[in-house]
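Page 37, continued from 36.
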């Protein structure tokens, strides 16, 4: 019994010490904030943020609340993570297969790629992509079109933007196609188990994924067009791209880092 107490007492003492230290700093912060007239809590989230964000997936400007600004930051983080996952998966599979190649040059090149990026700190990679690589790009008025529609400049990458009409109907058609495929797969499995007959599930699934969205375009009023980025002059020596979709250099740098 005494041995158990001796084992438990140091843990309890450590826990009490952590709680007391945390409580002391919390109380100290509360007193200092009260002396300066600063409210403690999350009420500030409903106040006007008064600052802009360069890139946002949703409508936002300085007149919106801090909560809206937090949502913009969260969505941008999820976007970077999603793009990074896609590129990392593609590059990881290619490099992983290359590492197993019997070809000496391919295998060594893949190994060099892995070891090179593994041994460079992430912060240094961010500085390289943002300050060295992206800052060397041309100004908007000097940029050459890539494939006639993409513009990579010091201010970011500008690409055509999808403009949808009745996008919800298109999504409904995809959902209906997926539900129909699930039902048909279940029916085909039961039919094979009971009667031994096989249905062309794959062909039917492909047909549903093509026909239902196509009907949404033909009779559902769904349409898709593209808004191209157009160079505009806003001052004597200042230009910008209007229209299209602009990806800021910060997003490009983080995406390059994620791979």
């Amino acid at each position: 019994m005494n041995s158990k107490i001796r084992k438990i007492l140091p843990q309890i003492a450590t826990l009490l010490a952590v709680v007391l230290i945390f409580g002391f700093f919390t109380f100290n912060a509360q007193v200092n904030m009260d002396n300066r007239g600063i409210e403690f809590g999350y009420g500030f989230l409903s106040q006007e943020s008064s600052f802009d964000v360069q890139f946002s997936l949703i409508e936002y400007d300085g007149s919106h609340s801090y909560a809206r600004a937090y949502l913009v930051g969260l969505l941008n983080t999820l976007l970077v993570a999603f793009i990074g996952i896609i590129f990392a998966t593609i590059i990881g599979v290619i490099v992983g297969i290359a590492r197993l190649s019997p070809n000496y040059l391919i295998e060594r090149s893949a190994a060099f790629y892995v070891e090179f990026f593994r041994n460079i700190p992430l912060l240094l990679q961010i500085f390289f992509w943002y300050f060295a690589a992206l800052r060397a790009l041309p100004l908007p008025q000097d940029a050459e079109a890539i494939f006639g529609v993409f513009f990579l400049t010091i201010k970011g990458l500008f690409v055509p933007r999808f403009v949808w009409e009745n996008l919800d109907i298109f999504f409904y058609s995809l959902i209906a196609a997926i539900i129909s495929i699930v039902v048909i797969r279940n029916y085909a499995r039961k039919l094979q188990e009971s009667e031994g007959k096989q249905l062309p599930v794959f062909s039917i699934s492909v047909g549903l994924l093509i026909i239902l969205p196509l009907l949404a375009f033909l009779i559902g009023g769904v349409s898709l067009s593209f808004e191209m980025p157009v160079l505009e002059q806003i001052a004597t020596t200042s230009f910008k791209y209007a229209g299209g979709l602009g990806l800021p250099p910060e997003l490009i740098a983080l995406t390059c880092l994620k791979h």
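The first helix runs from residue 2 to 35. Flag for discussion at group meeting. The chain has a mean pLDDT of 84.
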